[in-house]
Amino acid sequence: MTNDTMPVPDRRQGLRSLLALPVGLAAAGAVGGTAMAKTDKDVLSRLDRLESQHQISELLYAYARANDRFDEAALRACFWPESTHKHGGFDGTSTAFVDFALKIVQPLKYTAHHISNVSVEVAGDRGFSECYYLAQHRRTAKSGEGEEDAFFQGRYIDRHERRNGVWKIIQRRGISDLSLVLPATKPYADWPAGQHSARAPDDPYYQLRALFQSGR
């Protein structure tokens, strides 16, 4: 999934090209041409729907990754500029929610956001999804002594739009179902250096992805 706002090639055109030859041959035949053309159109529609569902799922995963890597650009790229957001006590634009979320995540020592139970519906350039989330925040204990792990569980219910071949969230409703805080058994600073996750751009994800994109 692309995280920028630049248009990407419409893959539907590529699918049309793949089907162009059989469609043309069927249309040229004296018998069954119309039926074959309709069948190919149905296949194209199903392929587009499957790819759209995949791209929307990748978008949901990208949101979780952007939070954990404290990657502001990637986080903002998940939403269209006019996207609205309601989660907990927050009710406003997704742009403002990103500002709100970054202030929460910034002082944390470690975060992990897990996305599961992804369900996606697609109708043309409109999408609807539901997914479950489970988040862990390692932070300084509220008491001021030691550290604690806060766990959160709930769901994201989203509406999506595709523009110039790019899917992004246009409306998010966050549901919070569980909040649990436990004292940490070991300070984050005592974890072995280099063996735990880091933030952008220092996390190995960015370095290894750069190697992959370079073809090495």
Description:
Strands 2-1-6-5-4-3 form a 6-stranded mixed beta sheet, with helices on one face. The N terminus is likely disordered. It is elongated and about 75 Å long. Helix 1 runs antiparallel to helix 2. The protein is built from 5 helices and 6 strands; from the N terminus they run αααββαββββα.
Taken in chain order, the helices and strands follow as HHHEEHEEEEH
Question: How large, in whole angstroms, is the Cα Rg?
Answer: 22 Å
Strand ordering within the main sheet: 2-1-6-5-4-3
Spans of at least 5 consecutive residues whose pLDDT stays below 50 are 1-6, 18-30
Q: Percent of residues in beta strands?
A: 35-45%
Q: How many strands appear in the DSSP assignment?
A: 6
